[in-house]
C-alpha cells in the first residue's frame, strides 16, 4: 500500500478511537467526576486568573479545563463534559471529511484528551489512556499541515516509523514483561487458567472462555508470546 494511503487510513482509524474514547468518557463524567461523583474533578482544578497559562499549558499538571472554567465560566464538571463533546465533534469531522485530517485538528484532539487525562485521576491512569496520549501526539505529527501542503514528502516516513516503533514497544514490552515477572503461571503457560475469572473488566464471554480445555488455554498463552514477542520486530 502506498505510504500516503497508509497515513490516511491511520488518521481515519485514530479519529474513530478518539470518538469512542470521548463518548465513553462523557457518559461516565457525572458519576466519576461530578460534584457528587467518586473523584470530583473540582478537587483538582485550582487556578487563579494570573496563572491561567501555566495551569493550562506548563504547570505540574497542565489541563485545558482551566480555560473552559475561566473563559467560558463553566463549572469543573461541565468543563470536562464540554471537552468531551468538543472532542467528539472534531473526531466526527475528521472521520467524515478528509480535509479535516490535519495537524491542527489532531493536536487539538490530543490536547483535549490530555486535559481530561490530567484531571481524570485514578480512572484515567490505565495503560490504554497513556497509550492514547502518546499515540495521539504522534498522530498529530503524522497528519499533514493542510494549510501548507497535503502531498506526501520523504520525511513523512520518519513520523510513520515512530508510529511503528510505538506499536513495537507496546507489543514487545507486553510480552517480555510477562516473562521477566517470573510469575509461574506465565512460565507454566497456565495464566489463562485464572485470567478470565480475574480480569478487571470481564465480558459476557469470559465465563465460557474459562470453561475451555486446559490444553487450549495453554495454547492461548503460547500464542500470546508468539504475537507479542516474535511478531512485533516485523513492524520495524
Automatic annotation (TrEMBL):
Family assignment from sequence similarity: Belongs to the lipase maturation factor family.
Show the InterPro entries listed in the entry.
Answer: LMF, LMF1/2_N
What is the membrane topology noted in the UniProt record heading this document? Multi-pass membrane protein
Span of domain Lipase maturation factor 1/2 N-terminal: 125-236
Q: Name one GO biological process term.
A: protein maturation
Membrane-spanning parts: 9-29, 82-113, 125-146
Question: Which terms are listed as keywords in the entry?
Answer: Endoplasmic reticulum, Membrane, Transmembrane, Transmembrane helix
Q: What is this protein called?
A: Lipase maturation factor
Could you tell me the superkingdom of the organism this chain comes from? Answer: Eukaryota
Q: Cellular component terms, GO, for this chain's entry?
A: endoplasmic reticulum membrane
Summarizing the function annotation, the protein's role is:
Involved in the maturation of specific proteins in the endoplasmic reticulum.
Subcellular location as annotated: Endoplasmic reticulum membrane
Determine if Cytoplasm is one of this entry's keywords: no
Organism name: Plectus sambesii
Q: Record keywords: Cell division included?
A: no
Amino acid at each position: 500500500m502506498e505510504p500516503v494511503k497508509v497515513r490516511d487510513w491511520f488518521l481515519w482509524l485514530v479519529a474513530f478511537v478518539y470518538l469512542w474514547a470521548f463518548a465513553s468518557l462523557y457518559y461516565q463524567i457525572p458519576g466519576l467526576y461530578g460534584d457528587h461523583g467518586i473523584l470530583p474533578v473540582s478537587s483538582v482544578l485550582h487556578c487563579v486568573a494570573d496563572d491561567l497559562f501555566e495551569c493550562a499549558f506548563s504547570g505540574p499538571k497542565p489541563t485545558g479545563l482551566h480555560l473552559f472554567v475561566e473563559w467560558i465560566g463553566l463549572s469543573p464538571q461541565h468543563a470536562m463534559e464540554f471537552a468531551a463533546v468538543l472532542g467528539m465533534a472534531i473526531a466526527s469531522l475528521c472521520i467524515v471529511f478528509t480535509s479535516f485530517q490535519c495537524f491542527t485538528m489532531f493536536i487539538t484532539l490530543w490536547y483535549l484528551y490530555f486535559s481530561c487525562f490530567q484531571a481524570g485521576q485514578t480512572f484515567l491512569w490505565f495503560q490504554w489512556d497513556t497509550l492514547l496520549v502518546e499515540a495521539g501526539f504522534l498522530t498529530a505529527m503524522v497528519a499533514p499541515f493542510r494549510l501548507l501542503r497535503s502531498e506526501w514528502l520523504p520525511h513523512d516516513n520518519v513520523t510513520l516509523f515512530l508510529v511503528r516503533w510505538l506499536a513495537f514497544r507496546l507489543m514487545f514490552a507486553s510480552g517480555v514483561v510477562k516473562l521477566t515477572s517470573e510469575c509461574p503461571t506465565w512460565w507454566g503457560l497456565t495464566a489463562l487458567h485464572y485470567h478470565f475469572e480475574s480480569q478487571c473488566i470481564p465480558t459476557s464471554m469470559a465465563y465460557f472462555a474459562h470453561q475451555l480445555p486446559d490444553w487450549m488455554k495453554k495454547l492461548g498463552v503460547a500464542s500470546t508470546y508468539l504475537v507479542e514477542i516474535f511478531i512485533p520486530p516485523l513492524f520495524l
